[in-house]
Design brief:
CATH topology: GMP Synthetase, Chain A, domain 3
Shape: elongated
Order of helices and strands: HHHEEHHE
Number of domains: 1
CATH class: Alpha Beta
Distance between the termini: 56 Å
Strand content: 15-25%
Structural class: alpha+beta
Length: about 100
Amino acid sequence: MKNNFKPINNALANILKKYNLNDTYALEYLKKNWSAIDKTISIHSSPVAYKSEKKELKMKVKNPQWKNEFIKNKNALIQKLTKTFTQIEIKEIEFL
């Protein structure tokens, strides 16, 4: 008897792509695991949107002072995000 089973991750990837849900899935993954990035970062910010075609993350920041800190350290933050969330490609961040 031939085994016709395919790995579930392939099926999930196909469904997400077919129904254009990759961005939604990535954002929900980021929200659920945001505390893994860094305690200070996760306390003062949260992910609110992700666009895979631009590889852009939009982050809501607690106040203007923290927004300035994040802007100053944007490249380091992108590196940290890329290292922490290896399956989501992030090349740009917009701070809200």
